[in-house]
Batch of 2 targets.
Target 1
Amino acid sequence: MRAQSVTSPFASDIEPPELGEIHAMTLHSAPPDEPSAHQKAAGPRLARCPVCGAASFTPRTTVQGVALEACNGCGLLVQNPQPSDDQLAAIYGANYFIGSSENDRLAPHFDLVKRATAALQLDDIAAYLRKLGPDAAHPSLLEVGCGRGNMLLEARNRGYEVYGLEFSTDAARVANRKLEADVVRVGAIDKGTFPEQSFDVCILADVIEHVRDPAGFLQIISRLLKPGGIVFIATPSIESWSARLLGWNWMEYKPEHLFFFDPGTIARLLENAGFGHIEISSGRKVLTPDYMIGHFEKYPVPVFSQLLGALRRFTPTALLGKPIRVTPSGINVLAAKRTS
């Protein structure tokens, strides 16, 4: 599945090879060994699938403490058991995002790639809205998990009235400073966080895979949207080219990722929550080569990370910092709240 082309001031797209071309290079010939006990998730077991409600799962493998099981009803891949709240809190520290620390050598890349990716995603949202009907004069937009506010800043520049919700106090403080307004709240979303039917657009970029109850989460999002309001989701996909190439070494098998969707399971989850007009495309991002190499340093992939590290040493600095469009590991999903 390939995303449609979008005019951009950035360098030309890097598209992945077709699956037939990479089959011989796949790295998932054997699952990794079992981790030591202290690496394993110590939180709750998932009793039912959030997509289809099935109560049985088949173990697949364990990747660096991430125990992966597949739902026997719909095939949704889940982490089971899940990390405890304490384990997750330890992961989501002040330096969770690559380049988010001022002392990080990738800090200059952070806002650049986030703003540029936000621009691509907002282009997709605008195109989707045009298909549905006339745009609202001043549409209101909520981003859940807004980080340091780069999406909100880009959206406000396009005429949106923006609001954000962020779990990290540090990130929310940075976002409000950038926006020069107190529009980002700190905390997790629940039924009383915002009034119902408040927003025209809700953005969930790299969020849905982190929440413990994605079905209940989307039902809350539906209530917050006005009739006909839309949701945009960006999430890793187990059917992406990188997932198929890297197999059990896929960089998205992280302890903080609780669910691993594909186009079928995410569409069914949205339908169950009252959404329709679902459109799914490959998840495009703008990254720099140095930022991508930094990702594989933080989330190592055997052989691949070492090769990229060697590549950095022989690549000119100007090229390492050049923004390029890539289709790495995810999907973009757009859906509209059903009015009846």
Target 2
Amino acid sequence: MTIQERVPLAPLTTLQVGGEARYFAEIKREDELREAVSFAKSRDLPLFILGGGSNIVIADSGWSGLVLRIGIGGISTPELNTDKPNDAKSAAVLFSVGAGVNWDDFVAQAVAQNCAGVECLSGIPGSVGGTPVQNVGAYGQEVSDTIESVRAFDLQRNIIAILPKPACGFRYRTSIFNTNASGRYIILRVNYRLKRGGAPSLKYADLQNHFAAQLAEKKMPSLSETSDAVRAIRRSKGMLIVPGDQDCRSAGSFFKNPILTGEQFKALSDRAAAQSLTIPSYPALDAQHKISAAWLVEHSGFSKGYVAGAVGISHKHALALINRGDAKASDIIALKEEILKKVQAQWGISLEPEPVFVGF
């Protein structure tokens, strides 16, 4: 393992902002991780774990400690132990995936093997190790639906631990890895239980509309067709990384869809009615008492294509804050704060940012 110094971090992120790492190392084996952790502890350096760089904002001052980029690879499908060939698990396939594997590559392999459970998560940038942290989800699926366990290095106990799904504390866009145990674990591998021959998930209206004619003839799309449709929809919204597309220089969705109480929803509805507006209803969101953050942003004065100097909002999706070419992290933060302030003033709702903020 090689420890590098003064490594620029902006090129390693999709938003392409931020300063340098004081120290940097890429980890491809578990023994290298132990060595790197020992290096950091001996110098009292703070650690930051970098995956695919798709959901983070790095400060202009960079990171004063050690950045570890986890490059542990490999996708394997160990046999499941079941004594009942006709039970629900008989169609299950367990995928053990290295934290450094590109997430979309894993989804593609699962779909190619006709294994359902992650097909609606196609096109999401980043690495496998980052998916449990924020319980990554899209189009009606979340990784917690299929995660069986997480293999991680426990910095507190200095051991490798296996955390079964219940121990991960998954909720909407959260887990123990970004809440009460933030900074404690370094994810090494993730085990996903998928269903061979399972039907695709078509919970979201975008997908139902895409396949409307096919579904009208009672023809269920394949996992591959569903995956392709998700990628096409993501591309139309600027949520698919396409080289040369300015709208793709983002950290993805910047704000979470807020979850409201009945009282909060009534207050919001009253505010909307006073402006002759109707809050859009999406069955997949309504089921979890969520509303569209994108609608709130757009109806607070921030339309798609909004420009604020070096930063702006994607022409395709109101939740994607973009680097228009030479932005600094401070520019991104300023736009974020402006949006938060105006949404709060206009709708009485406090939006919660989704990316990880590093070095602030």
